[in-house]
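Model it.
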Amino acid sequence: MSRIIDLSYPVDTHWRPNWLNERKVQSSFDTGSNWYTSIVTINCHAFTHVDAPLHKVKGGKTLDQIPLDTFMGSAYIIDVSYKGPGEGIQAQDMEEHAQHLQAGGIAIIKTLWDEKCSHQTKDFWIRAPYIEKSACEWLLERKVKSVGFDFPPAYSFRYPYLDPSERGTDHYSPHETFLPKGIGTIEYLCNLGQLQKNVVQLFALYPNIVGVEGFPARVIAIED
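Modeled.
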């Protein structure tokens, strides 16, 4: 029997500006309506979400313009959960733990960061492992169609919470490497620790919304 594993964070209240979301009740039984309807306003890059090239490339393709299977298909779990807080994921890590990756597949970088640090804390960003340019280029050479992360993938994501003297020179390596090449990214996955296999079928689905560079997604893995 197949197992279905939810790899998405629940969309709930959050302190981070990019993850703020507002709910407004439009009609309610309590106000005499026969219907309950609501409006949710949310950043396109909040919680578990997917990115299209336009996120980093001027004139790049939007979600409705990229192939539907960019975020669907065989996903290869690359286990680098031995990485500690603040450690970079390098090409050597890929060389040692991603040899099962197939061209045209989805690479999922597994650190289990969601088990080690709550996404409701600033430490989730400040102390997270991150992926270095060398690892991104290694994956690019293997011709993956998308890459997913269960941690804040870019080192610079921690910059808003650091003193300028503590900031490094690495900016947005995953975005600058993958998106210009038409490779999609899936950010802030969770529950990868529930997977029992290193190859699964993955589906990241989002509304067929026109003209946006990213959107929150419900991501599931299916194990046979």
